[in-house]
Design a protein that fits this description.
heterodimer, A: three-stranded antiparallel β-sheet, 2 helices, B: alpha/beta, Purple Acid Phosphatase, chain A, domain 2, 2 domains, six-stranded mixed β-sheet, 26 strands, globular
Chain lengths: 140, 565
Amino acid sequence: MALNRREMIWISSGTVVWTALGSIPSFASKASDLINELTSGAKLGEGLIDLIAPEIAENGNAVPLDVSAEGAEQIMLFGEGNPEPIIATYNFGPLSPSRGVSTRVRLAQTQDVIALAKMGDSSWQIARTTVKVTIGGCGG
Amino acid sequence: MISRRDFLQVSMAATAIVGASGFGNWCRLAAQQSLSQDQLVQFDTFGNVSLIHITDIHGQLNPIYFREPSVNIGVGDNRGAVPHITGADFRKAYGIADGSSSHYALTSGDFSALAQGYGRVGGLDNVATVIKAIRADRPEAILLDGGDTWHGSYTCLKTAGQDMVNVMNVLKPDAMTFHWEFTLGSDRVNEIVRNLPFAALGQNIFDAEWDEPSDLFPPYKMFERGGTKIAVIGQAFPYLPIANPGWMFSEYSFGIRDENMAAMVQEVRLAGAECVVVLSHNGFDVDKKMASLVPGIDVILSGHTHDALPEPGLINETIIVPSGSNGKFVSRVDLDIRNGRMMGYRTKLIPIFSDVIDSDKDVAALISEQRAPYATEMSEVIGQTDGLLYRRGNFNGTWDDLICDALLSERDAEIALSPGVRWGPSLIPGQDITREDIFGVTSMTYGQAYRSEMSGKLLHEILEDVADNIFNPNPYYQQGGDMVRTGGLGYSIDLTQSQGARISDLTLLKTGERIDPDKSYMVAGWASIMEGTEGPQIWDIVENHIRKLGTVRVLENNSIKVFGA
């Protein structure tokens, strides 16, 4: 039963990865509370935001996100399952050539990523997509 | 008046029936025990473009036995849909006679008995003969390899894929896409790909650092055949760094990237493509979903999930052709392309019955040459099996039961875990088990068998996580493959539940006690995707175990209870 140092390292790193998974996102209310607060309960339209994220993250510590919304003045990103749900806020001025960004974010576990956009006419748009963070390891 | 769109629909439906009867022919003839090579390759040439598809060969240069699954459950919209029907249900759906050659080739029942009669399948020398016959009929046919080619055998592991490269190059594919190839490590993959005499495609193979398309793997290639422009777009396995060790090819990123696929379809159409073919390693259900989301694809040649279907799937105006695995089948797809549209198609899934098809002598000699340096060590007989050893099935296979037993006894563990891969030939009762046979179900570049303590809670989480990779109702969240195999551990699974609630009743089989979430258990397993995993190679463990057993007794495995199937 004696473990050598290397095996021990493997086990401990494996345990860290695994324990981060499997639990059900429990921060959903925190994100929606924030969004409610920001929009003062205004109606949230859908369909004008392009939010592109991988279905399954290759690395939960650096998940590429691509978000754009033509005519947006501000785009905010939220991770519903992160301890602190707000990820970023992007402001666009009249001279911004495009109303979109590409970035990478850290996702603690399988969760919905939400993009909220304040449009030029002060209306709000929302989009969401699920990103799975998994242990994987058994491909065909 | 019939509209253009209606016309396409009608003509596609009509040719689909022709395709089905093409299949029915060899089925009936086989029942008359008069199977011949001419009948296997017989095809009423159709339209103006021919594609030849082979995929998931997994290093199998020589003929083998390969039993299709008896358990292959579909979830969500795919519940009860092909390929998620098996055995007698499958035969009924396609009108396949019991005991016919198509029963043997496509389904699992009575496998051992039928294998005695119909013999081995596959062998790239036999595949070469079939490809030659198609090219004799349609010289400009496009040959496409769906990947999982440079992996899966003793010689393939020892030569780091060179044996397969050498033989496939002689078959002259026009393009290829990838999955297990990347487990050779990116240095080796890059080295081979730089010298490939055909296109290495993957619209979803990106540079990981900048998330930009990689230079070495172009998204598509344009072909001109008989005055028709055909674009072939590659789609590598989307979940490579998740299902396999990402550290071995860390500069690459994958993913489904269907928005980029849509952009590529548009790009090739604008560049004049009259026909758009996707050479895919997505797996069948993912391909179905992609076809429903990305417009403008005429044909998806489908690999990864190893499904073999005698008729293509049809989603809107896209046909999806899955061509099996391990060299067992070649698909011929004839298309009628007119005015930039697919007006009809005819397909045939050709089973490579090695006793029926004449071996191509040149390719056979080349295969022998690849194998010669390893012939003695590969052919050593380690033991015998008294029953059928197979792998395919959602929850277990007898090969995996044997591998788990080997891990339990050779590594002094209470619980064994073995990956739910779908490759690996079968052995029929009474066969010798050679070292090559063991490598056929274990060989990989990360075969180290770990041994570590895990809590009951962690074991439960692992099972839940893997189950969601297979049974998530949304195909885009599935990775293909099957459930992780367990030795010494029983459980129940409810497929109607979602992640976290599918698995229950975890039982330590040795004592019959329930697994305690807070207790530690000694677990042995292999194929960890973690860098730095240490331990003996799994093939050595299995070899030692079989040597001690002498004859492997294959027993029924009742340790997993499935609900909601």
